[in-house]
Each structure stands twice: as C-alpha cells, then as structure tokens.
Design a protein that fits this description.
With 340 residues, the chain is of the alpha/beta class. It has a single domain, classed as TIM Barrel, CATH 3.20.20. Strand 4, helix 8 and strand 5 form a beta-alpha-beta unit. The radius of gyration is 19 Å and the shape is globular.
C-alpha cells in the first residue's frame, strides 16, 4: 500500500466545513517551513498525540506503558482521560487546529468516556486515529463507528494473537481496521516465515493494511542491538517476499540510516504530545518530557510552550546540516522521514 492510499483512506472521512481551519493551518506550515522558533501566528502543530491512560491489559517488553505505570501507579485517576479533560486540552491553540488526533495509551479502550471522546473530536472536525491492542474492540467497534472514528490500528503481539484470530473478521465486517507490528532484529532473523503467515491471515480477514514499525529502544528493557538498520538483509528479504506475495498491502518503515544521514525529521514542527496532567513529551521517538519552566500545557502560554528552550535547541540542530543529530535521534528511524 502506498502512503498516499493509506492517508487518503482516512482523509476521505473529513468533514471539510469543520476542518477548513485545520487544513489552512497545514498549508501555512508548508509555506513557513522548519525554523527554530515558530510564532503561533504562522502555524500550530498539525498532529496531536494524547495519552489517554497509562493502563493496559497487556504487558509487552518494548512498550513504554509499564514505565509510565511505575512512575504513577498511585495516581491512575489523574492520568486517566475524561471527556471534560479532553475538551480542556482541545481548547488550547496548540491542539485546536490539529488535523489528526492520535489517541494513545496504555490501552485507550479502557477509558470510560472513550466513545464520547471520539464523538466530540469528530464533530469538531478532527480526524481520529486509535491505536489499540484490540482486546475489547469487538464489543465496542459498532459504537466507535457510529461515533465517527476515522481510523483504528491494531497492534499485533504474541500476547493478543489468539484473541485477534477469534475476533478480527467480526471487527472488519463492521469497520475495517489496519494492523501493525513492531519489527526487531531478532524477529527478522528467527520469525520471518511466521510473520509472513500472520500478514497473510490478516489480509484474508479483511484488514485494510499491515504496517511495520521499526523497533525503538524504549520500554522496560531497551536494546540498541534490536534496531533494524539499512544493512539488514533479513529486512530486505522479508519486504521483498511480502510485496511479491501480497502486493499493495504492507507499509514499510524508514529504517535507521548508518551513512549519509539527512536530518529531515519534522516531528518537532508537526506534532504535539501530552498526557492528562498536561505533561509534554519531546516527540514520538522518546519518552523524555519537557522539564522546568514553561513545560506544562495547563499553566503555560502556548507560544512559550511550543518554543520551550529544549525544543528550540533541538530544532536548531535539526535544521543545521553541519551538526550531528542529537543523541536521542541517532537511533531513531524517522530522522530521515519528511512526514506529512
């Protein structure tokens, strides 16, 4: 599947009357481009990632949910989304004109107000992308469809495979979903045939696509050895096999570049990330959060937050072709990706 087809399938659901200011904001970004300091009169982020809950009904080694729970297990209620908290976040200029809202966790379907949150965002002209493990999706899929969800992506793990095999056809008969999987070096070396059969199964079950994500050294036990780089022949072989046997179904990640790396990442310009306490994650490639003054969504002027000194320093580096990428970016596969 091409990136154009992948995004068009979602964009066609836009209510253009409500979304017009958000589309204009995107074009303003394209015109103004990547600069270290961004006046909000020029543009605001186009993608908002909101972490709805730290809770999850699975525990996977390379997921950061368990780390978050360790930090705030006693404060789950304050870290859990409600419709009112979402409305408060979406009033902020940094989120108001986001075309797309990614709803993340933990497991977002555990949130009591989740369907109402989807309905609120959809009525206000936002595309909504839900990333879920699918454990409770079959019982909620019809309500999510009626609420106006734009896209649902199910992450495939060993821990939820049996459940998905029992329920994916029912889910797709109501609202076809996308599948995704994180690739590690050891998986490519030892499980290529199993991965191929898994992708075939979900293709035959009516899923719209299968997206591979490159492993990022995050989670409970991060491991740089599991990164997939541009010399990995197992990755090349799997991609060749799948694109031949199931054409136009898989989406493949940018892989970590080892030579001639261009710093083209746009995440610090296009995306804003926060949790229910207003804490801001630097970007989607790290668990690090903004710290110090002007670092919380709920008590900081939006322009000061968007131009926090840490973000400005990172942007300055990324737009300077003569400097090495920041350390946290050097194992990040989107460093060479142009984004939207």
């Amino acid at each position: 599947m091409s990136k154009f087809s992948y995004y068009f399938e979602m964009i066609r659901r836009i209510n253009f009357l409500n979304t017009a200011p958000k589309v204009l904001n995107y074009f303003n970004y394209r015109l103004y481009g990547r600069r270290a300091y961004i006046p909000l009169k020029k543009y605001t982020p186009q993608i908002g990632s909101i972490f709805l809950t730290p809770r999850c009904n699975l525990k996977c080694q390379y997921c950061s949910a368990e780390n978050v729970m360790k930090e705030g297990r006693k404060n789950i209620a304050t870290n859990e989304a409600t419709l009112e908290k979402i409305k408060q976040i979406m009033k902020n200029p940094l989120f108001k004109n986001c075309v797309l809202i990614d709803l993340l966790g933990g497991e977002p379907l555990l949130v009591k107000d989740f369907v109402q949150i989807i309905e609120f965002l959809s009525k206000n002209g936002h595309l909504t992308n839900v990333t879920t493990n699918g454990i409770s999706l079959a019982e909620k899929i019809e309500a999510l469809k009626n609420a106006g969800v734009s896209r649902i992506s199910i992450s495939v793990y060993d821990e939820n495979m049996d459940h998905l095999k029992k329920n994916i056809q029912k889910i797709n008969s109501i609202f076809p979903v996308h599948m995704s999987m994180v690739l590690t070096k050891s998986m490519l070396e030892n499980q290529a045939d199993e991965i191929l059969e898994t992708v075939k199964f979900f293709h035959q079950s009516g899923s719209l696509s299968y997206r591979f994500w490159n492993y990022r050294p995050m989670g409970v036990d991060p491991s740089l050895e599991e990164l997939v780089d541009d010399y990995n022949q197992d990755y090349i072989n799997l991609r060749t096999r799948l694109d031949k046997e199931i054409p136009n179904f898989c989406l493949w990640p940018e892989i970590v570049q080892t030579e001639n790396v261009e710093k083209r990442c746009v995440q610090l310009w296009q995306r804003i990330n926060c949790d229910m306490q207003g804490k801001m994650t630097l970007c989607c490639g790290t668990e690090e959060k903004l710290e110090g003054n002007y670092s919380n969504l709920f008590d900081t002027e939006p322009e000061l937050l968007y131009n926090h000194s840490t973000l400005v320093d990172l942007r300055t580096n990324l737009i300077n072709p003569k400097t090495a990428a920041p350390e946290m970016c050097q194992s990040y596969n989107l460093l060479n990706d142009l984004g939207w």
